[in-house]
Amino acid sequence: MSRGKLKIKPAFVGLMLLLMLASGASVADIHLNIVGRAETGKLMDQEVEIKIKMDTGAKTAALSAHDIKIFDKEDEKWVSFIIDSTHFKAEHRFSYPLKRMVRIKKRQEDIQKTGQTFENRPVIEMDLCLNNEIERIEVSLNDRSNFLYPMLLGRTAMEQFAILIDPSAIYTTTPQCKQTRASETAEIAETEAL
């Protein structure tokens, strides 16, 4: 006797919608992006496409970076870093204002190598495109060159994008954003002035 696959997705989505409506949201307020466990996004600063793993266990997004340098610019702390050819066809250097430093607990094998339990990582804000939406998200920087995915998207960014994850799917969307949020804001202001 063959057993059919249990189809949870529609029931789960329906339950989520009911919970949202019960919390006071209207149907017009509900906008969800259903994505796979991994997707392709775009770092809007240099329009670099990047593979992203959805990570509900992490609060903040993480980006693979090396040659991380903190420096002073116009009385502010800035961070420069490179995302390298391990995951991309060419190196890309970025510079952003330092938002804050975050203390992250190291994995057990890293603790055994270095003897240190925690590491401090710089956090920046950058524009990320998923599908056809751009959000400015917080991203911590660390070397992920040994990992399959150069970027992890944590819970905070998932909430910003209103993401629901379908764990059976992968690469269901492609980034289609053409301009950064700042450009869009300037265009809207210019249009309203006319």
CATH uppermost class: Mainly Beta
The name of the CATH superfamily reads Acid Proteases
Q: How many DSSP helices? A: 4
| Molecular shape | globular
- SSE-based structural type: alpha+beta
Could you tell me the CATH topology label: Cathepsin D, subunit A, domain 1
Question: What do you see in this structure?
Answer:
The protein is of the alpha+beta class and 194 residues long. It has one domain: Acid Proteases (Cathepsin D, subunit A, domain 1, Beta Barrel). The protein is built from 4 helices and 12 strands; from the N terminus they run H-E-E-E-E-E-E-E-E-H-E-E-E-H-E-H. The strands form 3 sheets. Strands 2-3-11-4-10-9 form a 6-stranded mixed barrel. Strand 9 and strand 10 form a beta hairpin. The longest helix is centred in the first third of the chain and has 14 residues.
SSE topology sketch:
Blueprint: H1 9-22, E1 33-36, E2 38-43, E3 48-54, E4 61-64, E5 66-73, E6 76-83, E7 92-97, E8 100-105, H2 108-114, E9 118-130, E10 133-142, E11 151-153, H3 155-160, E12 163-166, H4 181-193
Parallel strand pairs: 1-12, 3-11, 4-10
Antiparallel strand pairs: 2-3, 2-9, 4-11, 5-6, 6-7, 8-9, 9-10
Which labels suit this protein?
21% helix, alpha+beta, 12 strands, disordered C terminus, disordered N terminus, Cathepsin D, subunit A, domain 1, single chain, 194 residues, six-stranded mixed β-barrel
In short:
This protein has 4 helices and 12 strands. With 194 residues, the chain is of the alpha+beta class. The protein is globular and about 45 Å long.
